[in-house]
Amino acid sequence: QVHLVESGGGVVQPERSLRLSCAASGFTFSTYALHWVRQAPGKGLEWVALISYDGTNKYYADSVKGRFTISRDNSKNTLFLQMNSLRLEDTAVYYCARGGHFVEAKAVDYWGQGAMVTVSS
Amino acid sequence: QSALTQPASVSGSPGQSITISCTGTSSDVGGYNFVSWYQQYSGKAPKLIIYNVSSRPSGVSNRFSGSKSGNTASLTISGLQAEDEADYYCSSYTTSSARLFGTGTKVTVL
User: Fold this and answer.
1) DSSP tag of A90
2) For all residues of chain B together, what is the average pLDDT?
3) By a Cβ cutoff of 8 Å, what residues of chain B touch chain A?
4) What is the predicted pLDDT for the residue at B2?
5) Each residue of A51-89: pLDDT tens digit?
6) Average pLDDT over residues B20-49
7) Is residue A101 within 8 angstroms of chain B, CB to CB?
8) Mean pLDDT over all residues of chain A?
9) For residues B103 and B86, what is the distance between their CA atoms, to the nearest angstrom?
10) A95 touches chain B (CB under 8 A)
């Protein structure tokens, strides 16, 4: 079955960087769009970024544009999120999530368990 | 990129039906049939329960149903059960190929 496992979370100071990874299994990784979605403590879900199945297209929320970069390695079934210039408001659980089969518009259907990122001085 | 608007809370007695609204604009909910709904228990990852406005993934109870009218989508839970007590979020594709989530609704079973 579909399995998504995030890693790389932790505590980081403001303005520093952190890289999240998401290892996928149970499906043909290279044919699905992938997302990062975050949830601040006690708050709702916030979409962060989307990458197309082949890595050609990337889209970002305004709140992270220019600071975060989404990428993927289809040879290793792994999704990444490079987070630079981190701010206190980036503190959240970051979920890796599977999107559409070739089609970017389709719904997120499977989610990882999340990785906690805490930005604190 | 403002979040879609949902009521903060909805409650109902066991066996009743409740409906959660999700209001957006013509650039998201009203413009596409790519509206989905998620159920999230405290401390857990969300689970997809409705996609493409009204389709249910395999294994999801038929007590969950979705619809859309104009810029507002709705999730109805019929025959409310104690296990339905959770947070519910809508989501929509947008004209900029981004995604928007709703503000979230806490469902309480009285």
Assistant:
1) G
2) 96
3) 1, 3, 32, 34, 36, 38, 40, 45-48, 51-52, 57, 89, 91, 93, 96-104
4) 85
5) 999 999 999 999 999 999 999 999 999 999 999 999 999
6) 96
7) no
8) 96
9) 14
10) yes
What percentage of chain A has pLDDT greater than the value 70? 100
Reported confidence tier of residue B7, pLDDT bands at 50, 70, 90: very high
Contacting residues of B for A37, CB less than 8 Å apart: 99, 101
**A61 lies within 8 A of chain B by CB:** yes
- H, E, C per residue of chain B: CCCEECCCEEEECCCCCEEEEEECCCCCCCCCCCEEEEEECCCCCCEEEEECCCECCCCCCCCEEEEEECCEEEEEECCCCHHHCEEEEEEEECCCCCEEEECCEEEEEC
CB contact under 8 A, A95 and B38: no
Compute the distance between CA of residue B77 and CA of residue B84 in angstroms, rounded to an integer: 8
| Contact check, Cβ <8 Å, A47/B93 | no
Relative to beta strand B9-12, strand B105-109 is parallel
CB contact under 8 A, B91 and A105: no
B110/chain A closest Cα distance in angstroms: 22
Q: Note the residue count of chain B.
A: 110
Q: Which amino acid is at A16?
A: R
